[in-house]
Specification:
The complex is a heterodimer.
Chain A: H1 2-49, H2 67-74, H3 76-107, H4 114-121, H5 123-126, H6 129-140, H7 146-153, H8 167-195, H9 199-207, H10 212-223, H11 225-240, H12 244-249, H13 261-271, H14 275-299
Chain B: H1 3-13, H2 20-43, E1 48-55, H3 59-72, E2 76-83, H4 88-97, E3 104-108, H5 112-117, E4 121-122, H6 124-127, H7 140-145, E5 147-148, E6 151-152, E7 154-167, H8 168-173, H9 183-195, H10 213-224, H11 244-257, H12 271-279, E8 285-289, H13 291-298, E9 307-310, E10 319-329, H14 330-334, H15 337-351, H16 359-368, H17 381-390, H18 393-401, E11 403-404, H19 413-429, H20 434-452
Parallel strand pairs in B: 1-2, 1-3, 10-11
Antiparallel strand pairs in B: 3-10, 4-10, 5-6, 7-8, 7-9, 7-10
Classes of the chains: A mainly alpha, B alpha/beta.
């Protein structure tokens, strides 16, 4: 018996080792890919951020420590870009979330045609960002834009509005375009979350005399908390790193009115040819986004509260 | 089998017995034939492939020029790619950095110092010395714009001036029979046109942030007031309080926001938009490259032929002269002697003479009204007649004597230009005061100079 137990133990250990080895074998390829496409570029970025790298003089790359970080943090352009990013995120994240939630609740109604409407609502999100930006630029052009033409015909304005030539209006224009592009995804996520809530909960609450607002406040909103966290985190990351839309729509302009951190990082690297500072800016952006995500997870735990 | 048996065996198939001598003769014949065949393959060798890149302007004309060049040089095939003007410097930088550069490319005095400093482009002196003789025919500002570190870096595509032109008929309608001589007069004439309902926004100057033209228009307006950007040691002087640069930014801001005589979308529009606006009679005056005068005066419409060239308004009437040129890249040199020779021939055809005539430059001048760097073309009767049909040869030559190239063309000027355009926008849109914008531009210049060790 003792020998049998000993043999069983040995066999178990061998089996466990084989199982562990097999597990490692299975996850090594995706791990290697992740390391190559995520960890390696990150290491390269950190290295680049500590060197003076001018793309027009690639042979000279002296080590300068944290000078790139000091230089970018010191200039007014970085502060302006950071403020623009914060303003843009503060405007778009709540707007996308609220609009997405509203549309989701509307689409949840079982009315004729709403099945097709669910697909149509997704269309803006399906359009590539560059296409969306080009479309909005044509719509908002100060001399020939279709939106101006429509507003003029309806008598809402007396003369064309130069959406993209005025600093404040340009930020509004970018916000509008971003909202139009992003709310469908939020709507679909909220719709999926809403439809996962058991209808019996609503039935019981109605029997107890709960009105529409009470149903929303006490059932829908708490049970949508996990989805809300996903939407908030995702939309915050997207709004803090928005680039494609801005590249096509305003190029960060007029002047620096719509220059956000992502555009500023791009311009520093590919227009000012300063790869070292661009790398420093990317790391600062990544750190800022990480802080915001961590804050969200503390403020909005994913577990829903049940009363 | 014995050797003799083999030959008999082969010979029986050929209608008779073969001797050893026959076999040897046959073998020699086969060998000679193989060599001849190889020789014919060498003669019909693949042509040299040359890569040429330019920005997108009159692409069909460029393609036709290439076809003509290839007909004259059957051993060379040109692969042509074009990119939008606004993206051109960024695309070319990416190409140079990614080791995917063309052999020959369009270049501009905007970017020569930056590209030459990076060793992306190479001088003709060292690589196509036979082309240096053409320099004797070039206008001085064109040579300046194509020279870096004392060496010539290309042959001209075209050289032209930034000019002021206006719809003389509209000015006449508003009660003005002469062109404005100062920017105050431009304002007065525009206000009169607006008040009389002739045109709502008479002045239209394209100032798009992404457009490399914007800095040239700004330079021209500052030069017209006798202003300077940098001194001999490339120190900024444009930021002097109350100086011409500050006045120009203030004028542009007021023209849009206060007097409302300038297109309020000026910060979005580009050259083709302004040309269409002028042709349609929705604008009356502008600051543009001179070749646009040909475009507006030859396009059918109610205002065809009504636009007149005027000296740049301002106290000195000075303006910017610029040159765009064909440049040879390091890539062409690295490919070896054959590719380099082909590239030099391509440069020669486009920027030099064919049968004693500057064929391509003359074509651009006659068909598109582009200015030219080669002074003898002014004496060509066909060219003179073409200019006279839409322009003013005498006034053009007078303006040319008051043309200066852009000051400060250093290795970091191209980078500074991108930042400067952003600050011009900030000042014109009212985000910052002109003095503040100019200070930011000066500070950026100093920062970049520090990086490049200038």
């Amino acid at each position: 018996m003792r020998n049998h137990d000993r043999l069983s133990a040995i066999g178990y250990r061998l089996s466990a080792r084989r199982s562990t080895a097999y597990s490692w074998l299975l996850i090594l390829p995706p791990l290697a890919l992740t390391a190559f496409f995520s960890i390696y570029p990150f290491i390269v970025a950190v290295d680049a951020s500590t060197h003076r790298i001018l793309l027009t003089r690639p042979k000279k790359q002296p080590y300068i420590g944290l000078d790139n970080f000091r230089e970018v943090l010191r200039v007014a352009e970085f502060r302006d870009a950071a403020v623009n990013t914060a303003v843009f995120a503060a405007m778009t994240v709540p707007a996308v979330t609220l609009l997405g939630l509203g549309v989701a609740l509307l689409l949840n109604q079982r009315l004729p045609g709403f099945g097709l409407l669910r697909w149509i609502v997704l269309l803006p999100w399906a359009i590539p960002l560059v296409g969306a930006g080009t479309m909005w630029r044509l719509l908002l052009h100060g001399n020939t834009g279709a939106l101006n033409g429509l507003l003029l015909e309806l008598g809402i304005i007396d003369e064309y509005i130069t959406w993209l030539s005025r600093p404040t209006l340009a930020m509004v224009a970018v916000t509008m375009a971003h909202l139009w592009r992003e709310f469908p995804l939020a709507a679909i996520l909220f719709l999926a979350g809403r439809q996962a809530i058991a209808s019996e909960l609503y039935d019981v609450a109605r029997i107890d005399g709960a009105g529409a607002f009470a149903l929303f406040r006490d059932i829908t909103l708490p049970l949508l908390r996990p989805t809300l966290l996903i939407v908030l985190v995702y939309e915050t990351v997207v709004s803090m790193s928005v680039f494609d839309l801005l590249y096509v729509l305003t190029g960060g302009g007029p002047g620096s009115a719509t220059t956000v951190l992502a555009w500023y990082t791009y311009a520093t690297t590919f227009k000012f040819y300063n790869l070292g500072q661009g790398a420093a800016l990317s790391l600062l952006m990544a750190a800022a986004i990480l802080v915001v995500i961590v804050l969200y997870t503390y403020i909005l735990p994913a577990k829903e509260e049940r009363r | 089998m014995a050797r003799q048996d083999v030959t008999r065996f082969v010979g029986s198939g050929l209608g008779g017995a073969l001797t050893r001598r026959d076999v040897l003769r046959g073998g020699a014949a086969l060998g000679l034939g193989a060599t001849a065949f190889r020789g014919r393959r060498a003669a019909a060798q693949d042509p040299i492939q040359l890569d040429f890149m330019s920005w997108s302007y009159s692409v069909e004309t460029i393609q036709d020029n290439i076809a003509k060049f290839q007909a004259l040089n059957p051993g060379i095939t040109v692969n042509y790619t074009d990119f939008p003007w606004f993206d051109y410097p960024d695309v070319m930088a990416a190409r140079f950095l990614g080791d995917n550069a063309p052999d020959v490319a369009y270049n501009s005095d905007h970017w020569l110092t930056q590209w030459a400093d990076a060793d992306w482009v190479v001088p003709l002196d060292d690589n196509c010395p036979n082309l240096m003789a053409y320099a004797a025919d070039f206008a001085p500002y064109a040579i300046q714009g194509m020279t870096y570190d004392g060496k010539l870096y290309g042959l001209p595509y075209y050289a032209d001036l930034v000019v002021f032109f206006h719809n003389a008929a509209m000015a006449e309608q508003a009660g003005f029979s002469t062109a404005p001589q100062t920017w105050d007069e431009v304002r007065d004439q525009a206000q009169a046109m607006k008040e009389k309902g002739i045109v709502e926004y008479p002045v239209n100057i394209p100032l798009a942030k992404a457009d490399p033209w914007t800095i040239e228009f700004f330079y021209s307006m500052v030069y017209s007031e006798g202003g300077h950007f940098f001194d001999e040691s490339n120190e900024p002087v444009f930021n002097q309080a109350g100086g011409p640069a500050e006045k120009v930014l203030q004028w542009l801001h007021d023209a849009i926001n206060t007097w409302k005589i300038m297109n309020p979308a000026a910060l979005e529009v580009v050259e083709p938009d302004v040309v269409k606006s002028l042709v349609a009679g929705q604008s009356a005056s502008t600051v543009l490259a001179k070749y646009n005068l040909a475009a507006v005066n030859t396009t059918d419409g109610a205002h065809k032929g009504k636009f007149k060239l005027a000296l740049m308004p301002g106290s000195t009437h000075e303006t910017t002269g610029f040159v765009r040129f064909y440049t040879l890249t390091r890539h062409a040199v690295d490919r070896g002697a054959e590719a380099l020779d082909a590239a030099c021939k391509f440069l020669d055809y486009n920027g030099g003479k064919t049968d004693g005539v500057y064929v391509v430059q003359k074509r651009w001048a006659i068909e598109k009204g582009l200015g030219f760097a080669v002074l003898p073309l002014y004496d060509d009767p066909e060219v003179a007649a073409s200019i006279a049909s839409w322009g003013d040869v005498a006034l053009e030559r007078e303006q040319a004597t008051k043309a200066r190239i852009k000051e400060g063309l250093t290795a970091w000027w191209g980078t500074w230009d991108v930042f400067a355009r952003e600050q011009i926008h900030n000042a014109v849109s009212g985000s910052t005061a002109p003095a503040e914008a100019l200070k930011a531009m000066a500070d950026k210049w100093t920062e970049l100079r520090g990086y490049y060790g200038g």
